[in-house]
Amino acid sequence: MSFTATKFSHSLLAVPVNSSTPRSNEKPLSFSSDLFKHNPSSSSFLGSTQKFLRFNSPTKPFLHRRSSSPVAVLLQQTSNLLITKEEGLLLYEDMVLGRSFEDKCAEMYYRGKMFGFVHLYNGQEAVSTGFIKYLRKEDCIVSTYRDHVHALSKGVPSRAVMSELFGKATGCCRGQGGSMHMFSKEHNVLGGFAFIGEGIPVATGAAFSMKYKREVLNQADSDNVALAFFGDGTCNNGQFFECLNMAALWKLPIVFVVENNLWAIGMSHIRATSDPQIWKKGPAFGMPGVHVDGMDVLKVREVAKEAIDRARRGEGPTLVECETYRFRGHSLADPDELRNPAEKDHYAARDPITALKKYLFENKLATEQELKTIDKKIDESLEDAVEFAEKSPQPQRSQLLENVFADPKGFGIGPDGRYRCEDPKFTEGTAHV
């Protein structure tokens, strides 16, 4: 199914087009595309080009349909999206790096090298690569607790990310952030956030500062963009709605990227959301809502280009729902027994890395030897990252309260650099504080 846009009573409506419509002349539909006459009698709209699936039996999936009057703009999906050889190899390398890094994390976690909760990104690589690899270095991203691959895509070295997971001083947060709190000022990674939705206001604030620099401080070259990544479970939280409202009201340069992997820990998205079509919440706040197949990096990249360029031009925010799937449990502590095996098999067959590899071969953009060379390079870099992390020093005890208090010497660390709590008189006379 493909889509055209229609203006009706000052609203943009997505209208299904018969799937038998010739596709040879299709072009990606711009958010400012020509509008066609609305047909209220058109067939019921599902809201997902891939469709939301749920499984009651191991072999027979069925569609979960909801009839509604959709209000949105959807990008047409074409089957002949083109990339150059260099772009193709870049996308492939980034996706394989993300997948291999997460597999190495699982190995190190089960060997006792990492502690706490570790949430892996396997299966969702098309979203991170499709969006982040279109950004400039000056653009910023905000992530969730599933943040390793976002950091890698943004350019944070695998050594720094692995060391952070090991809790070492050479990590990107000097060992104080761990798996769920990746941060890099140099690469404009504004943090992974463990609490649901708390990163969205941070990204919105970053986008506001970008607009302020450009329009108030007259910094003409400040046309940077912020990306906020979050999951489907976040889209019923207050911060999400508040920030969509502010971003649309002030036309902030931000893209809200929903990584809808259909599960919020063990809760099915279908069961938790009154209307599972998340993209529809964008037009409710005056911004385009876009749905894209999040298992296809080329389709994600096309949507990313449109949304990011739109934000950079000063035309405001976009809400993009990427329908994807995680191949592992919610975290490495999750036995993943709640999801039906047939559902997992269905999405495993749509592995985004396998799909890209097939595209590169079919279009003669890469040879098998070129991809094997990339694979070997990544394997060697990850072995190096692990070795580097293991040999790196533990953080000094004196940094424990750094970045916790505005003036750590005024509370946790005394003028001599020692912990005040080590002083037997530490609590004396402080009952009134």
TrEMBL record:
Membrane-spanning residues: none
Recorded catalytic activity of this chain's protein: N(6)-[(R)-lipoyl]-L-lysyl-[protein] + pyruvate + H(+) = N(6)-[(R)-S(8)-acetyldihydrolipoyl]-L-lysyl-[protein] + CO2
Pfam families associated with the record: E1_dh (PF00676)
Keywords: Oxidoreductase, Pyruvate, Thiamine pyrophosphate
InterPro entries given in the database record: DH_E1, PDH_E1_Alpha_Subunit, Pyrv_DH_E1_asu_subgrp-y, THDP-binding
This protein's record includes keyword Oxidoreductase: yes
E.C. no: 1.2.4.1
MF (Gene Ontology): pyruvate dehydrogenase (acetyl-transferring) activity
Subunit text: Tetramer of 2 alpha and 2 beta subunits.
Domain Dehydrogenase E1 component: 94-396
GO BP, one annotated term: pyruvate decarboxylation to acetyl-CoA
Protein name: Pyruvate dehydrogenase E1 component subunit alpha
Enzyme class (EC, first level): oxidoreductase
Role: The pyruvate dehydrogenase complex catalyzes the overall conversion of pyruvate to acetyl-CoA and CO(2). It contains multiple copies of three enzymatic components: pyruvate dehydrogenase (E1), dihydrolipoamide acetyltransferase (E2) and lipoamide dehydrogenase (E3).
Signal sequence coordinates: none
Cofactor: thiamine diphosphate
Keyword set includes Oxidoreductase: yes
CDD domains in alphabetical order: TPP_E1_PDC_ADC_BCADC (cd02000)
